[in-house]
Each structure stands twice: as structure tokens, then as C-alpha cells.
Amino acid sequence: MKPFTRFASALTTGFIMMIAVFISCNKGNLPPVATMTAFPTFGDTSVLFDFNAEGTTDDKNYPIGLAFRWDFDGDGVWDTEYSKINAIAFQFKLPGKYNVTVGVKDIDGLTATASDSVEVYGKNNNIDTLLDPRDGNRYRIVNIDGRWWMAENLRYGIEISTDREQTDNDTVEMYRNPHSKYADTVGGVYLWLESMNYHINEPKGICPDGWHIPTKPEWESLFLPHKDLSAVYYRELYSIQYYGKNGSSNLNLDLNNGAHRSYEDGSFEWPYSVHDGWDTGFWSSDSRWNEECWKYHPYVCWFCSIDLHLEYDYWWGCEELMASRTSLTSYLSVRCIKDN
């Protein structure tokens, strides 16, 4: 065979093999690998949820050829037609748990789906009132995750002037913020020991019968992240919105009322007015003993939606604030939670 003929034959054979490989690969085309994430994984009906399928891949490496459609309520009926939109936002009108699905189609018509679930809260209408038989005060209460919480700050006790100390004298004493226009809901402030009725191991404190000052786990249950750890940061921001003033939970933790007495000269001050929101502190019935200071450090929940501040921790150690006398010189609000 002449060289040119051998070359032509080899070229033809190679071309045929390339076609065969192409046909073989084409026959083995695989469906897309669909992925989808939801953020956040929970929120109320005011939240705009983001659904992202940008991570979807195709074995042919033709992402530009992929088309997407969306089913937001998980009813099996597609809410959109196929389009190039691989990330979309959606706001749910009704509370509930939704299984959101994205459908993906490649240029050969092969399809795949991916799903993620979100939980949507509505406005909490599980509201009632609590009548404190000790003084006739009535409080609005709300049920959150099966537990009843006071939605107003406690205002039980005898109001005393700020030039007097709260002491263990068999009488519950409180201070009232003279700058507050919302005295009936903001309530009084108490030393931690006063709020515990000087019985540090009894969570009932100064709450009505059948109620107690929330423990550390009970406070934290309002704010701990969902199973999706990627939503930890959003959980905190959402908690501020959800539990804050006029939030959908109706718990209204922005009813702030905090004060401080100087350890040096005994002077008393209300650091911020009710509108500033910073001193929204609530006592817990839990505490820990500090061996260095020989003092108990109560657990505190700080809450402020004005500057997006949320914190829950024990009072600081001895080295921080003059032997940590804060639990003996600071006055915070009390919320009660119903016994199980």
C-alpha cells in the first residue's frame, strides 16, 4: 500500500473512532446533579427566603444549557416554568413547614430534582392573661413552643425610693423607672438576690405560685440555633426580630428596665431610658459560685433589638468589675415562666 493510501486509511479509521467515541459518550449522557440550599431555614411571614441551585452540575459541562423550575410549597405542582434562573427568593404568606424543590433539565432533556425544607412562623396568637392573686396585677402571657411566658415584666412588690437599699426583710421591694411611660408593662427592677427571694436554690423566686424565674436552659431555648449550624448567625438576628418589640412572637423582650447603684458612693442611676433599649436585662434563677470572689454569679439574658444586640451569659469574673459586685449592685427585670 502506498504511503498516501496508508495515511488516508489511518486518518479515516481515526475519524471513525472519534465519531464512535462521541456517539458512545452521547449515549451515556447522565442527568444533571441537582443541589439546592435554603437560607434561612426558618423565619416568619415577613422574611424573604433565598433558594440557591447554583451548585448544580452536568456531566457535559454545559451549565449554561441548564434550565430550572421551582415548587415552593411542596405540593408537586411547579410554581414556575423552566428558565435560566438558578437562584430565587420567595416570601411565604402562611405559616407552616415547606419542602421546597428545584427541578433541573439539561440540553438533552434529562432532569433531576433537589429539595430543602424551611419552617415559617406566623404571628403568635396563643395569648392569654395571668392574674397574680397576691396583688391583683394582670399580665399578658404567650405560649412559645409549648411553654407559657410572661410577656410583661414583673411588677410585684413594694416600690421603694432609690435612696433605700433592697434588703432581706421579708418584704419584696422594687424600684420603678421614673422615666418610663410604660410602667404597667415595664415593671420593676430587682437585685438578683431580691428576685430570688433570698433563696438561691429555689427558682420560684418572687414569681406567682406555679411560675418561676427562667433557668439558663429555658432562656437559651429561645435563641439556640436550629439543626442547620450554618444558620447560627441568622438565628441570632432573627431572634432579635422575632422576640423584640412588636415581634411576631408577642413576647416583647424590648420592655427594658435596668439600673445600677454605685458601689463607691451608693448613688443610683437609670443608665438609659426605656426608648434606648440597651439595658434590657433579665435575671435567671441559675447561678454559679465563684471561688475567687466567694460570690454567686447569676445568669443573665441581655436583649436589645435597637442595636441588634443579644447576649446570654453569667456575670463577669472578679478581675472585670471591682470584684464582680455587679450582681449585688445591678437591678434588672424579671420575667416568669410557667412550671411544667
Topology:
Elements: H1 3-27, E1 37-39, E2 42-44, E3 49-52, E4 67-71, E5 87-90, E6 96-105, E7 111-121, E8 127-131, E9 138-144, E10 147-150, E11 158-159, E12 173-176, H2 183-186, E13 188-189, H3 192-195, E14 211-212, H4 216-220, H5 232-243, E15 259-261, E16 268-269, E17 281-290, E18 295-304, E19 309-314, H6 326-329, E20 330-331, E21 337-338
Parallel strand pairs: 2-7, 11-12
Antiparallel strand pairs: 1-3, 3-5, 4-6, 6-7, 8-9, 9-10, 12-13, 14-21, 15-16, 15-20, 17-18, 18-19
Report on this model:
By secondary structure, the chain is of the alpha+beta class. The protein folds into 2 domains: 37-121, Sandwich (Immunoglobulin-like), CATH 2.60.40; 127-338, no CATH class. It is built from 6 helices and 21 strands.
